[in-house]
Structures are given as structure tokens and as C-alpha cells.
């Protein structure tokens, strides 16, 4: 249903932490102009944890409105409360989002049966395409392939974003789920190989700052052109790593600020990128041809 380079979009903020909707409009146009294949609004890179529910819904609504049907909008609506996730997912449906991305519940460490019932409840409550999101390094919760396989039989669960970086797991998931769901990488360093081995795309942090190259790399990788994909990915490799020198989205928001695309705002408990890392991020931007 969705494919290619999908950006895990930051939520731009003013210095006081208020959402900057003018910069959001600029970012949406930036991605449409540079070939991004889809926008994830208010995912975890979009600081969903520190936006209240009204802000969360408003950013989704504005992003859909700004895109005006020119690019798919996938709304981040996951929560560690099933009731809250259903509420946010309903909001996304009402706003006109094309799909929702639902991170596994964080902190409360549900069992695999709990994960199955959580996502089943959301899918049954809200008739919108839904993409599962497994990122155990951030949530302390790992949705195992057996659980993904069970969920893949629910008609409006259409995909999985897997951020484990485990390519053996990709092969296992492909065997288990067949063509019932699409598989997306949530790990930029292994995203190219993920697509060469059959994944349909990447939901990317790097795409925030290098959208044209990420799109081109995805086209090559999905087309099986390893050489072309590698040439592009080699330029981006420094960004894949530099944008995680501190917790995401700290480095990518600073990079976008350095590029003049957004103000420097970020919400506590996150803080602006530490001074010692700024030259490393700038150098990665230079090597990728993003800044001079």
C-alpha cells in the first residue's frame, strides 16, 4: 500500500516549545518537492510523547491539509494505553490521514498476548489502514514474529515498521506473513539491505535532511540495483549514524536548524544537541552534499 522513502517527520517548534505551523508547511513542501514517498506525522521522531492529545491531533490535521492529497500521510497514533491509542487513531481517521503507525506500548512491557489484543482492539475499533511499529531499543517491548504473523490476518493491519536492524528477522517475517503485510525498515543504517532483501521501504530519520537521495536510494534498492543503491547510500552513511549521536530527534532537529529549515525548538526532557557533537553532524551533512 505504501512504499519507498517515508520520512519520520520532526515536529518543528519555536524556541519556547510551541509548535511552529509555518515551518511545518515549509517541511511538507520540501518533501513533496524532493520526492519523498510518504510523511509520517507525529511519530516518535515527531516528539509524540510530549505533545498533548489536542496538539497531536492538530499536527495530524494540519499535515493532511498541507499535503492536500499530493503525498500519503501516515499518522503516528501509538500509545501505551490502548484507550488512548484508539482515541488518537480515531482522530487521524477524522483528519483524513491515509494510515496510522502504532508503536508497541512502552514501559509497561505487555506479554505477546497483550500486544496481540492491544493491536487487535485498535484495528477493530477504527477502520483505517494500520502499520505496526516495533522498536524494542526504545520501548523495552519486542513484538515477536509469531505475534506479527497473528496480526497480519487482520484486514486493516497492512504493514510493519521494524527497527531492530535484524535482517534474519526480515526473512522470517516474509516467510510467515507472505504478501499479507508490507515490511518497512525503521533502521536507516540497514535500510538499503532491508529493501534489497524484499522490504517495501524505509520510514527514515535521514530522509528529514536528505529526501532526494533517500528517495533515489529506495528506488534503486527496491528495483534490485545494488550498485546504484550502494553509491547513494555511501554518501548518506555518515548521516545514518550522526543523526543518532544523541537520542532521536535531538540531532536531526539540530541538523534541520543548521540547514535553516526550522527553529531550534525542542521540548523537555529533550534538549538541543550537545556542543561536542555539532561538528560531527555538520560534517555528515557536508559529506552528503546537504550543506556547504
Commentary on this structure:
It is built from twelve helices and eight strands. The mean pLDDT is 97. This is 4-hydroxy-tetrahydrodipicolinate synthase.
Keywords:
amino-acid biosynthesis; eight-stranded parallel beta barrel; single chain; alpha/beta; cytoplasm; 292 residues; TIM Barrel
Average of the residue pLDDT scores? 97
Q: Classify the secondary structure makeup into a structural class.
A: alpha/beta
Radius of gyration of CA atoms, rounded to a whole number: 18 Å
What is the third-level CATH name, the topology? TIM Barrel
Strand content: 5-15%
| Oligomeric state of shown chains | single chain
Order of helices and strands: EHEHEHEHEHHEHEHEHHHH
CATH superfamily: Aldolase class I
Shape: globular
Helicity range: 40-55%
Q: What's the level 1 CATH class?
A: Alpha Beta
Strand order of the largest sheet: 1-2-3-4-5-6-7-8
Reported CATH architecture = Alpha-Beta Barrel
* Parts with pLDDT < 50 across at least 5 consecutive residues: none
Number of helices: 12
Q: Calculate the terminal CA-CA distance, rounded to whole Å.
A: 37 Å
User: Can you summarize the main beta sheet?
Assistant: 8 strands, parallel, barrel
Q: Say how many strands there are.
A: 8
Provide the domain count: 1
Briefly summarize what is shown.
This protein has 292 residues and is α/β, with parallel strands linked by helices.
Please give the structural blueprint.
Blueprint: E1 4-8, H1 21-33, E2 38-41, H2 53-67, E3 73-76, H3 82-95, E4 99-103, H4 112-125, E5 130-134, H5 136-139, H6 145-151, E6 157-162, H7 167-177, E7 182-185, H8 188-196, E8 201-204, H9 211-222, H10 226-242, H11 250-258, H12 275-287
Parallel strand pairs: 1-2, 1-8, 2-3, 3-4, 4-5, 5-6, 6-7, 7-8
